[in-house]
Amino acid sequence: RVVPSWEGGTPASATQTASMIAFLAPMSLLTTAVLLAMAAGQRGPPFDPSRWRLDMLDEFDGNSLNTSLWTAKTGIHTSQEGEWYLPENVAVHGGRLTLTAKVSADPRKTGGLNYTSGWVDSKDNWAALGGRFEASCGFFIGAGGRSRGLWPAYWLMPQGGSCWPVSGEIDVMESLGGCHTGGMKTCGEQESHWDLHYSKTGACNNDGSIGNFTKPIPLSRHGNLFNESLSTFGVNYDVPGDQMTFYVNETVVGVHSGFNELVDKLHPWYHILNYAVGGPWGGFPDAETVFPTRMECDWVRHFSPQG
To answer: Hey, CA dihedral for 112, 91, 294, 272, is it positive or negative?
Structure first.
């Protein structure tokens, strides 16, 4: 595995890893601010492990998904996408979680959709009210292929919340691999966003995305994420201070305050990792999108602040 910098480059022992993967009880309401507000595009302060308590870590050791923490989804999602999620498209091997997107062998058996892919979430297994949520992931396309129509994401949803998006949605990372209505227009290139969703009227399916705070990550600064390398995507959610700080590889890409007042009530948030194909935002694959293609994650973790 890739050893996090805060570990000083030394892998955790088997005992430490096992104890951390067995996630701890849900955290109580935060009483300490997570981070000071920082200007977008600047490096944050070095991560200080003495200020944080690690209370969830999965490094995807072994050869099977930790089903006490994760559930692999079967079926469709509701964003007009082109994939049918299957547990068989989810694998754990070599210290990584792999979500594979493929062309469906028989669309009649996959909801009439032309692709299959993988989704895992920690709903009903693990959630936390706030703190530092992060994942180390990368995206792998075939040689010479383009990334158009690929839509990997790492996001958080409220455990026990009301209908979407009344209780909110936190998108830590959505990477788009093609033509779409905003940001860069060049097909085949890719950008990554963070987003927040809430209900404009308090009613179901009345989406109020905080569009002014959607920040594409310039390729010139962070590189094309579809390049067989890992990046760390994260958010520090200071619940008492009502502030979120989004970062990629410890570079701050966005700061937002005031989200608490936009949702019906505060709920603990659970992790979702999925590899979508197609949809109205990023567009659908074309002849140069090579399948199969993979989203790989080295680890997912959560910290809560210490006193």
So the answer is: positive
Torsion angle of C-alpha atoms 202, 157, 242, 259, degrees rounded to 10: -30
Phi, psi of 151 (to 5 degrees): -140, 65
- The burial of 5, by beta-carbon neighbours within 10 Å (0-12 exposed, 13-18 middle, 19 or more buried), is given as exposed
As given in the structure block, the two tokens for residue 206 are: 């009345």
Q: What is the DSSP letter of 199?
A: B
Which among 222, 235, 162 is positioned nearest to 196, based on CA atoms?
235
Contact, 73 vs 119, CB < 8 A? yes
* Residue pLDDT, tens place only, 41-66: 455 556 777 889 999 999 999 999 99
Give the total residue count for the chain.
307
Paired with 131 in beta bridges are: 237
Looking up tokens 């068989």 gives 88
Q: In terms of Cα–Cα distance, which of 274, 270, 302 is closest to 123?
A: 270
Q: Which helix (H) or strand (E) holds 246?
A: strand 243-248
Rounded to a whole number of angstroms, the CA Rg of the chain reads 18
Would you call the peptide bond into 165 cis, given omega within 30 degrees of 0 as the criterion? yes
Distances (CA, A) of 95 to 136, 192, 249: 12, 25, 20
Strand partners of residue 103: 115
Distance CA 250, CA 232 (A): 8
Phi/psi at 171 (nearest 5 deg)?
-100, 105
Quick check: pTM over 0.90? no
Pairing of strands 243-248, 119-121: unpaired
pLDDT in tens, 233-290: 999 999 999 999 998 888 888 888 889 988 988 899 999 999 999 987 778 888 878 8
Q: How many CB atoms lie within 10 A of CB 267?
A: 17
Cis peptide bond prior to 240, omega within 30° of 0: no
